[in-house]
Write a structure and sequence with these properties.
- Four copies of one chain form a homotetramer.
- By secondary structure, the first copy, chain A, is mostly helical.
- Chain A folds into two domains: 55 residues, Orthogonal Bundle (Arc Repressor Mutant, subunit A), CATH 1.10.10; 136 residues, Tetracycline Repressor, domain 2 (Orthogonal Bundle), CATH 1.10.357.10.
- Chain A contains eleven helices and no strands.
- The longest helix of chain A has 24 residues.
- The two termini of chain A are 32 Å apart.
- In chain A, 47% of the residues are buried.
- Chains C and D meet through helix 2, helix 7, helix 9 and helix 10 of C and helix 2, helix 7, helix 9 and helix 10 of D.
- Chain B binds a DNA duplex (21 and 21 nucleotides) through helix 2, helix 3 and helix 4.
Chain lengths: 229, 229, 229, 229
Amino acid sequence: MLATGLFSNEARNLGKSARTRARLMDAAVELFARDGFKAASVNEIAKLAEMANGTFYVHFRDKREIVQAVTLGIAQELARQLDEAMVDIDDAVERVSMATRRFLDLALTSPDWGRAFFRAAWAFRDLRENMLSFLRADLERGRDQGAFTVEIDDVLIDTFASMIMGALFGRLAGDFGPEAGARVAELQLRMLGVPPQRAHAVANRQLPELRLTIAALPKQLKPDPVPSR
Amino acid sequence: MLATGLFSNEARNLGKSARTRARLMDAAVELFARDGFKAASVNEIAKLAEMANGTFYVHFRDKREIVQAVTLGIAQELARQLDEAMVDIDDAVERVSMATRRFLDLALTSPDWGRAFFRAAWAFRDLRENMLSFLRADLERGRDQGAFTVEIDDVLIDTFASMIMGALFGRLAGDFGPEAGARVAELQLRMLGVPPQRAHAVANRQLPELRLTIAALPKQLKPDPVPSR
Amino acid sequence: MLATGLFSNEARNLGKSARTRARLMDAAVELFARDGFKAASVNEIAKLAEMANGTFYVHFRDKREIVQAVTLGIAQELARQLDEAMVDIDDAVERVSMATRRFLDLALTSPDWGRAFFRAAWAFRDLRENMLSFLRADLERGRDQGAFTVEIDDVLIDTFASMIMGALFGRLAGDFGPEAGARVAELQLRMLGVPPQRAHAVANRQLPELRLTIAALPKQLKPDPVPSR
Amino acid sequence: MLATGLFSNEARNLGKSARTRARLMDAAVELFARDGFKAASVNEIAKLAEMANGTFYVHFRDKREIVQAVTLGIAQELARQLDEAMVDIDDAVERVSMATRRFLDLALTSPDWGRAFFRAAWAFRDLRENMLSFLRADLERGRDQGAFTVEIDDVLIDTFASMIMGALFGRLAGDFGPEAGARVAELQLRMLGVPPQRAHAVANRQLPELRLTIAALPKQLKPDPVPSR
DNA sequence: TATGAATGAGGTTTCATTCAT
DNA sequence: TATGAATGAAACCTCATTCAT
């Protein structure tokens, strides 16, 4: 019955409608990851979710809406889990390293989510800016703590994010193994001005096991006008 | 007559067939940049190139083929020009800074090319690896010259490339101005272990004016099996 | 709660089932008037009636049935009210003038009803013939009273009706004002052979105020085989 | 091969594209007549025209466009033929009688055209007003010649047209025979103030045989905002 | 080579209707 | 009675590709 996707899991205790909607979203994630937002067809989503194509439109006004729901759902869930994982950490150097490494772990927990997130990151400015604002806070914290010697500006933040996304891509493509997260975190810390030894030490510190929890549902998101799909 | 695109320019002294083909490629670049590879339609390409849709298939076996031709053509041309710009430089620190800054300048000379390149970079592994091999050479040179203290591995190279691509995206989206290239180059040098002052100095050194030349034509390219489209 | 339509009003003292049915019919009239029989959708009718779409099929076997019910209901109600308004009039000249003028007034009391009636008139032969039989009686009365010099045949009756429908259309479209009824009645009387002065006088006579009452419910109606939809 | 419709006939000496387009228009007329503009489907039109559904969109941007082309084509052709038939007649009484009778003859030459015209008349204000302007000219001529005693206003013209349309409907529905045209013309003349004997005489005068000729092609037309389909 | 009409599979979306609750 | 999720046929339209000229 395939009710195995993460959205279905989140919705397993909700009403029938919510569960059907979640099944569609799970199917959509899978196809978005494989084919992209544009190439994935509504009919195929419905077929993969094992329901009639008309059913799709009972739950989503149109294709745009499921793209938004899936995208936002993934972003929110990743952000929530990342936040949870970092709640106890105060040191900015640790936080920045943790953010990169944990984010990659989380996004790779379900490669479909990772792939869909990767696509969405280029397509939706809202989502991008939302993620970047968290990053900015930690980078500024590091500057204020005197740990980072580099100036914090938009280019830095964006570049920092690009390094993470590059690592995500490499891992999804199978080019890199699990150690890539630590490696990229180390490079980031070097870039920020953390002394090489400390950068290496912090970035390679053993992380506590990843404990996954499940949560809420999405709302809104509007696509970039320009460089999307 | 629109014979103004870069491919048409390259082909201006070739036979009629080559010139027709080039006009199609110029039209394709424009539409690929605006709509993506999937959404750009063959009919629209032919219309923009001011010829009958059937003519398209005289010059390309199918849509895949023009995507490859355009993509590879752009990559080769960018690589050629970049190479030319760097031919006299020996110092790896200078080379690496120059590569990032010049590449961005070149790719933004024609935003359509930049956009098409950006899309292609994620879609075609061959193209990616081709670009990365040049990078690797310069990074290893820097290590051998004792300028870079960081270990050179695949993750580093890929990360370095991601930083460039992130900057390209930001510039195409209008988020960054022309200074972004120098800024990213500086961040890269810091990451590689170049002392901050030198990194800043080299990355912000005045560049010789960009002199554009025109050249050769493409052949082959196969798309990634997995995370493309 | 919108229980304000004419059918709901008629059914206000009946059982709950009848009232629900009436609410659906009121919603249907509104949408039929706006969109036509074909374009009005069952889901939209139910939504406008503020109930679940499934409820529709508790009260009507299918869409055809509500079209018939609404159509016949409107026709019967218009005929009843027209009849009531004319019950005291004996002179055929007065009756014919009154029929045209009052019918237009009645049909325009609720533009939705007028529009729906207009559409139905071309679509349902039964309804048409039902209306025409009343007309025939008055025309024959006029002939027998010596007021009309024209021969009474099917073409005359139909033509007479067409003049009314044309006026209805013009008024619904906003092309004509309230005076159109008198004008058309005058033209009809001239056509029938009433002397112009008398035609003018009778057609422009002040009408007693329109007093609306409410009444019964529909049953049956079958669509024309040929030139409908 | 069905290349028998009137549009195909008109286009029989034109290029292949025009002939295909005409075949589609002939098929469309047939289906519009039977099912209405809304209910007739593009796929069915293509099927009836014996071509692939995609071919439809080679010749028409969308369904609206073929509705306009067919509608305007019919109206123009009917107007042209009617004009031709009346070119030698000066007497307004004769002209008015001729217009009604000949129009009905023409429209019934091809019942599909008649039916499509009937539908279009209610749906497209432009078309309606175009036809009415010809009518107005003849009615004013009659007034100026002293033949009509009635006042010429919008309601009169519209009513006059409604009488014709009513007769067309009756003939299409099979309710009336060929004599209906003369009968309606007589009623119209009576309405206008022509003395009954003259009205009868003129309306029943033998008409010269109908000689059909073929002609030009359509351009433009926009649908009514309000009371259409 | 070049043309452009023709094809038909497949995309998104709507909608009358059914059915389990 | 009432609900509303589910269905699947069918609507409009797009597009890569073929083919006769």
